[in-house]
Amino acid sequence: MAKYYITPTLLNSWQYNIKNGTLEDFIKVLNKEEFESTESIQKGFEFEEYMEENYKETKGGSYQVKISKEYGDYLLYGIIDCLKGGIIYDYKYTQNYEVGKFYNNHQTLMYLEMIPEAKKMVYLITNKFEDEPGEIFREEYTKDLFPETIDSILHKFESWLKQYNLFEVYAEKWKCKY
Question: Which residues of 127-163 are buried (b: 16+ CB within 10 A; e: fewer)?
Fold first, then answer.
């Protein structure tokens, strides 16, 4: 039985903050502290809504699909923006887009692990959105493109938490409730 929740948001925050941010920022996420919604976050929600209603390729898919899978001591958990025809779609708004921006996103490996029958994960990305998006960029990934597995990432995450004496905080805040 799984002991702890793990989400792509938590792993991505860890990855970002150990490379570009601060330990203090990661600890806020680890403690599940509330944060203020930014204009970029709001535009992301608006872009997602637009895509659900208008984007031909994903129209009629299943939206906001909650998924989970027990994986050793962990319960992998996430919410898929759209699942259609064996493809996982994720809508992303970002102010600064570069090709391959989402290659190292832990969401990809986690979602493909939780839905092993999925053929691939497709990110649909824009860097301009008012009432409709500007150009929509596309990144497609399959599980075999990654040198790491979800197992190796979870092992590194747990080891890092223990090295920085944060595992107990994680265990308390992210404990499975059932």
Answer: bebeeebeebbebebebeebeeebeebbeebbeebee
Task: For the chain, list the strands marked E by DSSP.
Answer: 4-6, 62-71, 74-84, 87-93, 120-126, 137-141
Confidence of residue 129 (pLDDT cuts 50, 70, 90): confident
Question: What pTM does this model have?
Answer: 0.91
User: Which residues are within 8 A (CB) of 147 and not within 5 positions of it... i.e. 6 or more apart?
Assistant: none
CATH architecture designation of domain 4-173: Alpha-Beta Complex (3.90)
Distance separating alpha carbons of residues 115 and 108, to the nearest angstrom: 11
* Residue spans per domain, the chain: 4-173
